[in-house]
Amino acid sequence: MNILLLGATGRVGSHILSYALHDKHHVTVLVRSPEKIQINNENLTILQGNVLHIDDLVQAMSGVDVVFSALNTDGTSTLSESIQLIVQAMESAAIKRIITVGTAGILQSRITPNILRYQSSESKRKSIRAAEEHQRVFEVLKQSTLDWTIVCPTYLPDGQALGTYRVERDYLPEGGSEISVQDTAWFTYSQMNSHTFIKTRVGIAY
């Protein structure tokens, strides 16, 4: 499988990269700072570029079968701006499958199901800026022709990969309060070969 991974230097993205290379997939990463990728692997192609530049995305998507985005919000609007360009480049290249990492805040609230968790009393977050960015990504993907999945973890400590966790379509598993970075990355990576959560959000927690 030929994979394009965006956000490869981040906490979740770096683990997705390790899993994909371990399984001998070819992985292209588009990064602003190539020196941050300290991996030498014949199946890894490192491209220097910016997700806000459509030409960089088009180049990175050449020959790609599936796109992973583990981009974070980084205090800017990069996430919501880039998703529109990512969708445009994917549709132009006839690539259908994209798996992104979101946040549990954009799942439906159990208390008030007609609104999102971050908009309800269910959320303990003090700032909603990141959740708003992820919601914009969700809205863009919903309007696209792509086969998308948004993996929505709750609190993300580093911890160990336990390999046992709960997932639920559109909601955070009841009582879930955390999920490790490693388990989140593994579940996200595993969606490449699954059609269970096409065109939906999926909550993940222990």
Write up what this structure looks like.
The chain has 206 residues and is of the alpha/beta class. It has a single domain, classed as Rossmann fold. 29% of the residues lie in helices and 20% in strands. The chain contains 5 helices and 8 strands; from the N terminus they run E-H-E-E-H-E-H-E-H-E-E-H-E. The protein has helices spanning 11-22, 54-60, 78-92, 129-143, 181-190; strands at residues 2-6, 26-31, 44-48, 66-69, 97-101, 147-153, 166-169, 200-205. It has an 8-stranded mixed β-sheet, sandwiched between helices. Strand 4 (66-69), helix 3 and strand 5 form a beta-alpha-beta unit. It is globular, with a radius of gyration of 16 Å. The two termini are 30 Å apart.
Beta content: 15-25%
CATH topology tier name: Rossmann fold
Q: How many individual helices? A: 5
Number of domains: 1
Would you identify the CATH architecture? 3-Layer(aba) Sandwich
> How are strands sequenced across the largest beta sheet?
3-2-1-4-5-6-8-7
Total number of beta strands: 8
> What best-fitting shape do the alpha-carbon axes yield?
globular
> pLDDT under 50 segments (min length 5)?
none
**Major beta-sheet overview:** 8 strands, mixed
Return the average pLDDT rounded to an integer. Answer: 96
Q: What's the end-to-end separation, in Å? A: 30 Å
CATH class: Alpha Beta
**Which homologous superfamily in CATH is the superfamily?**
NAD(P)-binding Rossmann-like Domain
Task: Assign a percent range to the helix content.
Answer: 25-40%
Q: For the CA atoms, what is the radius of gyration? A: 16 Å
